[in-house]
Design brief:
With 490 residues, the protein is of the alpha/beta class. 37% of the residues lie in helices and 20% in strands. Strands 8-11-12-7-13-14-15-16 form an eight-stranded mixed β-sheet, sandwiched between helices. Strand 5, helix 6 and strand 6 form a beta-alpha-beta unit. Helix 1 crosses helix 12, helix 8 packs across helix 13 and helix 9 runs parallel beside helix 13. The two termini are 32 Å apart. 42% of the residues are buried. The structure holds 6-O-phosphono-beta-D-glucopyranose. The site of 6-O-phosphono-beta-D-glucopyranose has 5 residues, from helix 8.
Length: 490
């Protein structure tokens, strides 16, 4: 990453510092930023949580986390730089003494580390402590320099709760100080979607209903719920992945060209897409829940047998839907989307399937092998873009076969891709919200989810309805087959 300007000095305060996210993603991301010299000249990291522990223990745990999870090799000099101003503050959220302790620690780091009263607060806290944390930060607001808040998901549970969170945040902060994170937007390949569409002249003219037959978006995971039943049971696939990551991928695929890459311009275009989506009917949505099976050679239990999951749980671990974006560009072009856990393998892709060539003169010879063109954006793994085209098989006659023109990140750039959290934390340090979701986007996303969930009250799907390691429920195949199409194999 190359920087046009360096972030201003500030303190980075992580609420929920003893959680998994801090260990696995946030501190390793900060380490990688330090490794590339991208952090401010003066900064300090404050971990805040309710667990009692000393700063020394916290720092030691974070050091271990960096060794285990950072994408860069461990270097003592980088670690020294990162950990120099690192400390831990134990606080009961919403408790007066705890607030004072955070305030005192911040004053100390300002004095000792030159952090200039600027604050980046990272809220990685469970929903029940969210109000207390925001209020605590808000009350101190006028005594500080600039303040920015990164807010982790889940951002609410439905439209009403998301609106309430937005109201709470706006009571204390301006919209340009609030950074609602969707880590998919920090992924290089997701941003490459914008480069592909808007930095090339050849795609936009065909990026519409006249040339595109349909779009398929897949967010498949091999993982189960990884011990997160408390979070997952009330959420399910629709709130965990569909409401945010999947709808963001769809919005980026379908949006009009923004006039520039500022937060306002990009987000305005995405909101228009989200607003033009209507509620799919019950036949256009499929829910699934995994049963036992084998994933990557290992035997795994069913969802209902996972720790903390109710034995008759009706939570979905899979969702597929046929969605429409009702505007001039996309009218009548289906977007088939699916997301699920414990599928055969991990794969996130956006496949743009073009219409058949109108009159291939080789039809008689090519048989089934002449397939329509597909532009496949491989978000992960094997990051890259691939265009399927028909080509002549060498030799006599005119046999056509589908071949692939591939661009692979690894091959072209010979550099490791940064983790999404590196990019997003850096953008927030720089005050750039283009890759964060706005209030309107979040609310539109919830509107769609609420309307789908509303229809599930009468849903009688029998769970489990797909085996772990399989491609998903049969009903999802039926959903797309009814339109004489099929899912890309994954
Ligand atoms: C998170 C979800 O937001 O995204 C998880 O809560 C999911 O359930 C994860 O596993 C997927 O992220 P990634 O970056 O591994 O594709």
């Amino acid at each position: 990453m190359q920087l046009a300007r360096r972030p201003e000095s500030c303190a980075i305060v992580i609420f929920g510092a003893t959680g998994d996210l801090t260990r696995r993603k946030l501190i390793p991301a900060l380490y990688s930023l330090a490794y590339r010299n991208l952090l401010p000249h003066h900064f300090a990291i404050l971990g805040v949580a309710h667990t009692a522990q000393t700063s020394a223990t916290f720092v030691a745990t974070m050091k271990k986390a960096v060794k285990q999870h950072a994408r860069d090799p461990f270097r003592q000099d980088v670690w020294d730089l990162l950990s120099e101003g690192m400390r831990y503050v134990e606080t009961e959220f919403g408790n007066e003494d705890g607030n004072d302790r955070v305030a005192e620690a911040l004053e100390e780091v300002d004095a000792e580390h030159g952090t200039a009263g600027n604050r980046l607060y990272y809220l990685a806290v469970p929903p029940k402590t969210f109000t207390d944390s925001v209020t605590e930060i808000g009350e101190r607001r006028h005594r500080e320099g600039w303040v920015r808040l990164i807010v982790e998901k889940p951002f609410g549970h439905d439209l009403a709760s998301a609106c309430a969170l937005n109201d709470l945040l706006h009571h204390w902060f301006r919209e340009d100080e609030i950074f609602r994170i969707d880590h998919y937007l920090g992924k290089e390949t997701v941003q490459n979607m914008l480069a592909l569409r808007f930095a090339n002249g050849i795609f936009e003219p065909v990026w519409n209903r006249q040339f595109i037959d349909h779009v398929q978006i897949t967010v498949a995971e091999a993982m189960g719920i990884e011990g997160r039943a408390g979070f997952y049971e009330p959420a399910g696939a629709i709130r965990d992945v569909f409401q945010n990551h999947l709808l963001q991928l769809l919005a980026l695929t379908a949006m009009e060209p923004p006039i520039d890459f500022t937060a306002d311009a990009v987000r305005t275009e995405k909101v228009k897409v989200l607003k033009s989506m209507h509620t799919p009917g019950p036949k256009s949505v499929v829910r699934g829940q995994y049963g036992a099976g084998f994933v990557e050679g290992l035997e795994v239990p069913s969802y209902r047998e996972e720790d903390g999951v109710s034995p008759d749980s009706l939570t979905e671990t899979y969702i597929a839907a046929k969605l429409y974006v009702d505007n001039w560009r996309w009218a009548d072009t289906p977007f088939y989307v699916r997301a699920g856990k414990r599928l055969g393998r991990r794969e996130t892709t956006i496949a743009i399937q073009f219409k058949q060539a109108p009159h291939p003169p080789f039809e008689a010879i090519a048989g089934d092998d002449l397939r329509p063109n597909v532009l496949l954006i491989q978000v992960q793994p094997d990051e890259g873009v691939s265009l399927a085209i028909g080509a002549k098989v060498p030799g006599a006659g005119m046999t056509i076969r589908t071949v692939h023109m591939d661009f692979l990140y690894g091959g072209s750039f010979r550099t490791q891709l940064p983790e999404a959290y590196e990019r997003l934390i850096l953008d927030c340090l720089l005050g750039d919200a283009a890759l964060f979701t706005s209030e309107d986007e979040v609310e539109e996303q919830w509107k769609l989810v609420d309307s789908i969930v509303g229809g599930w009250a009468r849903d009688r799907t029998n769970f489990p309805n797909y085996a772990s390691g399989s491609p998903g429920p049969k009903a999802a195949d039926d959903l797309i087959r009814r339109d004489a199409r099929s899912w890309r194999r994954h």
